[in-house]
Design goal:
Blueprint lengths: L1 H12 L42 H16 L3 H15 L19 H13 L3 H8 L1 H10 L6 H9 L5 H6 L7 H8 L1 H4 L3 E2 H18 L4 E4 L1 H4 L4 E2 L2 E6 L9 H11 L3 E7 L20 E10 L19 E10 L5 H9 L2 H15 L1 E3 L4 E3 L4 E2 L5 H7 L13
Parallel strand pairs: 4-7
Antiparallel strand pairs: 1-3, 2-4, 5-6, 6-7, 8-9, 9-10
The chain binds 2',3'-dideoxycytidine 5'-triphosphate and magnesium ion.
């Protein structure tokens, strides 16, 4: 693919301008020049992707197609649509014609056909068909409940259930604790969390953590660290400067949140981390750090700005429920955990693929293992991890792949 990309600009320069138009005098204002898309890497970790997405009309459709493929357990197409969306997100301007995407990586025939539909008709018939699909609608609705994954959603769909009301009134359905909380706070936690709300929660978490351990290290991660205006939850990483001191920290934090009367739900997972198992520990999405998935009560008065809490019109409660994730890795894993939990998912996925395919290294949220040297490469900052991988540093706000 590298040679293809290197050869591409030359080929495009040879494309004659449309008949009767002198391209040098009258450049087509709708077509970005080929140079604008030259040298786009197939790996998200070699692209800089801010929150400013010039190709939302395409990427929203691609992401819906990816989700639909995921529901059908079509892993290949799902990944292909996600990669295509990610490449388009990184472009410095909007795509106005198919010529402008020539030579870009990760855009297959399927993706191009969808883009052509959107360019020609302003819409994608394929995605409109999917949106009308009963199964897609039901699975999307069910998985929008905290604690409900694709498997449970599929099970409910197969039983003939179609609405949340039907789930709640079906006597044979046993919801687990997480799902019960998901239904209980559904209207709040299905609403986006704003940056102002994330900031308010950051203050609460910081105060709580430092009340327990003044020297604890706390960082905002996830989408808000990448500069997003809205998110579905707020993610934090915390650790202690001295190895091992992080043990028990999260349980203390949970207790303290409970004492403050703001803990609406808590699912705690103890650490399943075992240094002796590294690096044979499976390098995949999930990490084994102690963590908790919370639902916290956020008061109107704690949120700065005119708009305050994100609420329905007519909601006069003066508070809302928000999903918060806290992860507590040991300090020697902190940089790897920070890199992983900052995301985006696609950025992280491509970092791991890049490490493996281009560097014969294994990267996950705990460590970086060099297969050639047969050793783990240490790092205390994200910059060091990029350097180990021989990658230019990409700032968190440029990781919105
Ligand atoms: N992550 C991870 N391991 C997990 C779950 C998540 O490494 N088991 C990473 C991937 C992205 C990041 O953590 C944050 O996850 P989300 O909160 O799901 O994503 P987000 O980018 O913060 O998006 P949102 O704004 O919707 O919260
Ligand atoms: Mg998040």
């Amino acid at each position: 693919t590298d040679s293809m990309r290197e050869g591409r600009p030359v080929r495009e320069e040879l494309v004659p301008p449309p008949v009767g138009v002198d391209a040098s005098v009258t450049p087509n204002p709708n077509c970005s020049p080929p140079t604008a898309v030259a040298n786009v890497s197939q790996y998200a970790c070699q692209r800089r992707t801010t929150t400013e997405n010039h190709n939302k009309i395409f990427t929203d459709v691609m992401e819906e197609l990816a989700e639909s493929s995921e529901f059908n357990e079509s892993k290949g197409p799902c990944l292909a649509f996600r990669q295509a969306a990610s490449v388009l997100k990184s472009l410095p301007s909007a795509v106005h014609c198919l010529e402008a995407i020539q030579g870009l990586p990760c855009l297959g025939e399927h993706t191009k056909a969808v883009m052509e539909e959107i360019l020609t008709f302003g819409r994608s018939f394929k995605v409109e068909e999917i949106r009308c699909d009963e199964r897609y609608q039901a699975l999307k609705l069910f998985t929008s409940v905290f604690g409900v994954g694709p498997k449970t959603a599929e099970k409910w769909y197969r039983r003939g259930l179609r609405s949340l009301q039907e789930i709640l009134t079906e006597p044979n359905i046993q919801l687990n604790r997480m799902q019960r909380a998901g239904f209980l706070y559904y209207s709040d936690i299905s609403k986006a969390v704003s940056k102002a709300e994330a900031k308010a929660l950051g203050c609460i978490i910081e105060e709580t953590v430092h009340w327990i351990a003044p020297d604890a290290i706390l960082a905002l991660t996830g989408g808000f660290r990448r500069g997003k205006e809205y998110g579905h939850d707020v993610d934090f990483l915390l650790t202690m400067p001295e190895m091992g001191k992080e043990e028990g920290l999260l349980l203390h934090v949970i207790d303290r949140l409970k004492d403050q009367g703001i803990l609406l739900y808590c699912e705690y997972q103890g650490s399943t981390f075992d240094v002796s198992k590294l690096p044979s520990c499976r390098f995949e999405d999930m990490d084994c750090f102690q963590k908790c998935f919370l639902i916290l009560r956020l008061e109107q008065g704690q949120v700065e700005g005119e708009r305050g809490l994100q609420r329905d019109p007519g909601d006069s409660r003066g508070w809302r429920a928000v999903r918060v994730d806290l992860v507590a890795p040991p300090v020697d894993c902190y940089a790897f955990a920070l890199l992983g939990w900052t995301g985006s998912r696609q950025f992280g996925r491509d970092l791991r693929t890049f490490a493996q395919k281009e560097r014969q290294m294994l990267l996950d949220n705990h460590a970086l293992y060099d297969k050639t040297k047969k050793l783990c490469l240490l790092a205390t900052t994200e910059e060091e991890i990029f350097a180990h991988l021989g990658l230019e540093y990409v700032e968190p706000w440029q990781r919105n792949a």
